[in-house]
Amino acid sequence: MTTVPPSEPLLQLALRVEQDIFLVRQRGREVATAVGLEHQDQVRVATALSEVARDLLRGVGGADVTFDVDLDVVAGRYVLRVDLSPARPLPDGRYEPESGAVARLVDMLGVVRDGDDTVVRMSRRVPANARALTPKRLAELRAELAGSAPGTALDELATQNAQLIAALDEVRSQRDELEVLNSELQETNRGVMALYNQLTEELEETNRGVVALYAELDEKSAQLRAASESKSRFLANVSHELRAPVTAIIGLSRLLADTASDPLTAEQARQVGLVRDSASDLLALVNELLDLAKAESGRIEPNWTEVDLRALFGQLRGTLRALATKPDVELVVEEPEFPATVRSDEVLLAQVLRNLLHNGLKFTERGEVRLRAERRDGGWSLSVTDTGVGVPAELHERIFEEFYQVPGTTRVGGTGLGLPYARRLVTLLGGTLELASEPGRGSTFTILLPGEGA
What confidence tens digit (pLDDT) does each residue in 342-353 have? Predict the structure, then answer.
């Protein structure tokens, strides 16, 4: 604590005989009152002074008592300081009060060095709302204290008794309040215990219901797994059974349309062309069903390698250029920045990107379909953006459901299986597939792939 002491103390007393103890106590209370301490603090300071004075009188024959005021510069508060300079040196330069409770009555009590002397010092902070102790005010207090006549030991004893009675009344009042609080607490405890017992019973009943619900959920989950496995087996079996006849139909239709065969009439050629196109669409559906069945059954295992995105994008640019047959639609494949490698499965990643690009070209009448790659958070963001019809916000998740197609787009063709299969593959690769789209503003499908440390 950094303090600035005044030039002259407020009051000085000599402690030499037993009667001086009462005088020190009385004057200490007067000084505490003068500087603005509250009533309880006045009593505490007076009590602590009388105890320390009695110890010093019996131990070292008395002391010179000095009352002073310091300014705590850091806290901006005044402090009442009392120094007791022993008449003889303290044993071992130390002081321990006989009553251990004395130190709790003041903010500070201990032995300090004051120049060449050793003094017992105690202090108590003055309340912040007390009257400012300016130099003028301190001079007035010195004059008042010097002019006041000290009372007798009987007067101080009467005052001390009055303070003791007041303290006893306060203790009795606090005891009565404590009894009321204890009674209320007991009543509250009884209510809490009743509520606790009720909640315990309800919780046990709820737990029994939860256990039954979990058992039902486990049963439903087993049924769902069995149904999913049956569906996957059905799709795989049906797809395998359909591929052979569909492939045969396509082959026969090509033979019929071959110029080396007997010539067909125009109507026959048209009918054969319709058969071949329908069979091709059916074969595409069968292949997508097979792929979806493999993904659902978990039989697709990624072949993890370092994939060069620049080479992959170049391959996609070449293979998909032939699909960009609409004169008003441009396929743009941006070159990724170097180096552009990601740990993934090149075949599966190419299949997903090819699917997204093919969808973009299919549903875009004019503008462009753009593929780009950007680094993001240590990984890669691969996006396919088109200027097609767009998808309403409420359908963003539905288009990833199997066999679902946005209303009004069925005339373009498709099975509704490509996007669900693409999302499953991206999940297998440890990434996510997201959609941002608005009707009339096109769509952006974004694949987020983690980096090597992810």
Answer: 999 898 898 899
Name the least confident of 6-15, 232-241, 312-321, 423-432. 232-241
270 and 357 together in one domain: no
Digit-coded pLDDT (tens) for 7-23: 589 999 999 998 888 89
What CA–CA distance (Å, rounded) separates 151 from 75?
36
pLDDT reported for residue 166: 67
Contact (Cβ atoms closer than 8 angstroms) between residue 71 and residue 54 = no
The whole domain housing 344 covers: 305-449
Which of 447, 442, 420, 199 has the alpha carbon at shortest distance from 309?
A: 447
Q: Do 288 and 314 have their domain in common?
A: no
Average of pLDDT values for 407-415? 59
Q: Are 373 and 336 in contact (CB under 8 A)?
A: yes
φ, ψ for residue 70, nearest 5 deg: -110, 160
**Beta-strand relationship, 367-376 and 329-333:** parallel
Count of domains for the chain: 3
Between helix 346-362 and helix 309-320 the angle, nearest 10°, is 40
Same domain, 331 and 379: yes
Domain final residue pick, 88, 121, 151: 151
The confidence band for 153, taking pLDDT boundaries of 50, 70 and 90, is: low
pLDDT for position 454: 43
Q: Are residues 277 and 406 in the same domain?
A: no
Task: Give the span between the Cα atoms of 356 and 289, in whole angstroms.
Answer: 17
CA 245 to mean position of chain CA atoms? 60
Q: Does residue 55 sit within a domain?
A: yes
Please indicate, yes or no, if residue 179 is contained in any of the structural domains. no
Residues 86, 48, single domain; the answer is yes
Long-range contacts of 189-197 (CB under 8 A, 24+ apart): none
Residue 105 within a domain: yes
Banded model confidence at residue 183, pLDDT cuts 50, 70, 90 = confident
* 444 and 328 both lie in a single domain: yes
**pLDDT tens digits for 351-368?**
899 889 988 888 888 899
**Burial zone of 179 (CB within 10 Å; 0-12 exposed, 13-18 middle, 19+ buried):** exposed
Q: Express each pLDDT in 279-338 by its tens digit.
A: 766 766 666 666 666 666 656 788 899 999 999 998 888 888 766 677 888 999 998 888
pLDDT of residue 12: 92
Q: Which of 264, 296, 328 is the last residue of a domain?
A: 296
Residues 271, 388 share a domain: no
Report the length, in residues, of the chain. Answer: 454
Consecutive H or E run containing 329: strand 329-333
Instruction: Supply the DSSP symbol for 91.
Output: G
- Please give the DSSP secondary-structure letter assigned to residue 150: P
* DSSP code, position 388: S
